[in-house]
Design goal:
Layout (H helix, E strand, L loop, with lengths): L2 H29 L4 H48 L14 H57 L6 H32 L8 E4 H18 L2 E7 L6 E4 L1 H17 L6 E10 L2 E8 L6 H4 L23 H11 L3 E7 L3 E11 L2 H10 L1
Parallel strand pairs: 2-4
Antiparallel strand pairs: 1-3, 3-7, 4-5, 5-7, 6-7
Helix pairs in contact: 1-2, 2-3, 3-4, 5-6, 6-8
Length: about 375
């Protein structure tokens, strides 16, 4: 029963029942005013009505209290838990109806939103701590190497031109690792603040990937990894993309392949395929592969198939989550296929760009 109905019934009862009893008593007194016995009977009847009215009033008060104020006290108790940061105290709206049910439902909606917000905040804090721990761990390795090789040069351990060149090359490679880690940290901060700096423009995707392959190919050769590139698109196939962020996608995927390469001779194949109104990119390696149970989680932040921090691969755990974010911000989507011991293939799809003016011109010529 709704609160309005309860209050209406209570008001009518409290207003008219006493009046009805008084009128009844007066009528009885008028009828039996000549008889002392009858007068006593009327007085007894009045007392009975008073007792009945008292009992009824108590029952009515209990009914209103149980139907209204009890639930308000429960709601007040629940709000107390909310103020203490406890979002697990639930109210069952199915046990009530009317306005009380609406209040319960409003409380539950608020509780769920606050709980989700609290859980997300706790999760973000835990992830930030994990990120700091990961970055701190991964910074130590290149810093230690840089320090060691620099000391080797200073102390004269690198006593030949060949050794000095190798030491300097190693120091350079380690500084690149440091730069990559710091860039990931900066980009992660941009993701959380929704301030990723995109500059979209039309690019020839075949030429763009050819330049990227040439840029990273020499570095991979030094690591005994062969990079193959195959472009099966029509000439001048274009997409709308941010070249800087798209290059970050390619570097992160290739970097991940290099990180988990377990073959003496590594192979990374990059293929550009036509998918009607989209371009499909495949970056495949012959590395250690990913277990089926891990495949669906590799794009999550901080997820690492090797949870041990003693792993030689290291990594902040956000590289592929950055890739996913960039691809989705370009209107595309990404997924992975893999076989343990054989390798992994990253697939992503981005829509083609068509110049409408050229399209209209072709239609007119037809």
């Amino acid at each position: 029963m709704t609160l309005k109905k309860r209050l209406t019934i209570t008001f009518i009862t409290l207003l008219f029942l006493p009046v009805a009893m008084l009128i009844t008593s007066a009528v009885l007194l008028l009828i039996y005013n000549d008889s002392q016995v009858s007068r006593n009977f009327v007085i007894e009847a009045i007392w009975i009505m008073i007792v009945f009215l008292t009992i009824y009033a108590i029952a009515l008060t209990t009914w209103v209290n149980k139907g209204v104020f009890l639930h308000i006290r429960k709601l007040n108790k629940a709000m107390g838990y909310i103020s203490e940061g406890n979002f697990d105290y639930a109210l069952d709206a199915d046990q009530v109806d009317g306005e009380i049910a609406e209040l319960y439902n409003s409380y539950e909606d608020m509780r769920f939103k606050l709980k989700e917000s609290s859980d997300e905040r706790i999760r973000d804090e835990a992830q930030n701590k994990e990120l700091i721990s990961n970055i701190t761990h991964d910074l130590k390795t290149p810093i230690t190497s840089i320090k060691g090789y620099a000391e080797g040069i200073i102390d004269g351990v690198a006593d030949t031109e060949e050794k000095r060149a190798r030491y300097i090359r190693t120091i350079y490679d380690k500084t690149k690792d440091l730069d990559r880690l710091l860039n990931e940290l900066t980009f992660y901060s941009s993701i959380d603040n929704n301030k990723i700096p995109y500059t979209f423009r039309s690019i020839d995707i075949g030429r763009f990937f050819s330049d990227c392959v040439e840029e990273v190919g020499m570095d991979l050769e030094n690591k005994n990894i062969r990079l193959n590139f195959e472009n099966l698109l029509l000439p001048n196939t274009r997409i709308i993309a941010d070249p800087v962020q798209m290059r970050k996608v390619i570097n992160n995927i290739i970097g991940n392949s290099v990180k988990y390469m377990d073959k003496e001779e590594g192979i990374i194949d990059i293929r550009l395929l036509d998918a009607v109104d989209s371009v499909r990119v495949e970056i495949e390696d012959n590395g250690k592969g990913i277990a089926a149970k891990d495949l669906g989680s590799i794009f999550e932040r901080f997820y690492r198939t090797d949870a041990s921090r003693n792993s030689a691969q290291g990594g902040s755990g956000i590289g592929l989550s950055i890739v996913k974010k960039i691809i989705e911000d370009h209107g595309g989507y990404i997924w992975a296929t893999s076989k343990e011991g054989e390798g992994t293939c990253m697939h992503f799809v981005i829509r083609k760009y068509e110049d409408n003016s050229n399209k209209e011109e072709k239609e007119e010529n037809l």
